[in-house]
Write a structure and sequence with these properties.
heterodimer; A: alpha/beta; Rossmann fold; eight-stranded mixed beta sheet; about 40% helix; B: six-stranded mixed beta sheet
Chain lengths: ~260, ~220
Amino acid sequence: MTGKVITISSGKGGVGKTTTTANLGLGLASLGKRVICIDADIGLRNLDVMLGLENRIVYDIINVIEETCPLRKALVRDKRFSELSLLPAAQTRDKSAIKEEDMERIAHEAAEMADYVLIDSPAGIEHGFRYAVKPAELVLIVTNPEVTAVRDADRVIGLLEANNQTPSKLIINRIKPEMVKRNEMLDADAIVDLLAIGLVGIVPEDVQILSASNRGQPVVLSNNSVAGQVFRNIARRLEGEDVPFLPLKEPSFFQRILGSLK
Amino acid sequence: MPVMNQQALTLKGTPDGIVLHPIASSWEKVLDALKSSLDEATGFFQGGRVILELKEQSLDETEFQALRTLLEQHNLELWAVLGGNAAVQHIVRIHGIRTRLPASAPKVTTQPAGNALLVEKTLRSGQSLYFPGHITVIGDINPGAEVTAGGNIIVWGRIRGTVHAGAMGDIDAAIYGLVLNPAQLRIADLITRAPEEKQRGSTKPERALIRDGIIVVEPWKPRG
């Protein structure tokens, strides 16, 4: 049984691909699944920082491609879950160092050792995007409730349909229920209606996400964060469980005070 | 917006046909890029005619033939080759292909029966569809997508991108949609855009056509 290769992509930058990859990686590992995260953003290495694994890196993906190091040896094991490991990007090279076949070979080799291989795609629709989605069985499209992000997500879904026929699913990140209520933000229904692909999660805006990423302790590890709960639910949905969507509520006065005390 | 393929070439639908501008210096790269553009747009350009516009590029007999074969495989006709040096023009003439466009491109006023394209999918941002006859789309035209037809455009879905009917000058062409909410509407030489204020609220089927020299939008009702 080989594992499932899932690429996290978006088109637009800064919508939360790396945050999603880190949280889903940890979320799946906490369910006891063996997970390998691959940082495909060569030259803009981030995933290791978010996972808090930066200081453990010895080898990177380029070493594996150039066969100066076997994949198993290049993997950095997570300090919290032994089921999770990371194949870091190279910081001193650029995306031209990877060919689509290289990524395919590495992803398939990783899938032999894991239940899930999560590939964190670079932004854009150029070479970096193409090699990142090449080996994927499923692409998770991350978007924000912004017209430009949704437009780019639509473009990416179109490219996936035309070139690879790779199925895609949607994660809407950074929804602010109070802004949706005031009609100042696209709501999830309008986005799903336009993009017309299956929805696997709606992540509310949560200040804890940023502070958690900065500390290298993704929010999925925190029990009192709604966003963390959402990522745990997405992980379970990927496992095939039928998990109901959390109701999106604007924070009450009490919760806001509580939040400011944290 | 022209279809770009990693800057190896541009493809643009015009009233005269699909204009192909090679950019890459290697002809092999141009053909590769063209092939992937055509594959990506399966059926979208079908039945069209292609105008190759050369700058200083030189082309030999084999390269010319390779282009023709590729286009024919995609059901496209190489209709004209513009520019290029004397040697290229010579090869092109031997093959009986025009090297300049007719003074005024023939304006098509009626579409031959049966000349229509049916597309059963949603056109997403960045995708474009060009067809010299009528186009029917079962699906949506999303924002950022472009549809250009020589005849009418009928969409069983929502139009939110850019649509151009009667692109070869047919002022009798019309655009029909279940929801007509385009970024821009074009019929023949006329262009109109959505009002700036807010998106139009109508969710009833509508059609756009030219009346007294301007594009008007009206409810699309069954003929009775």
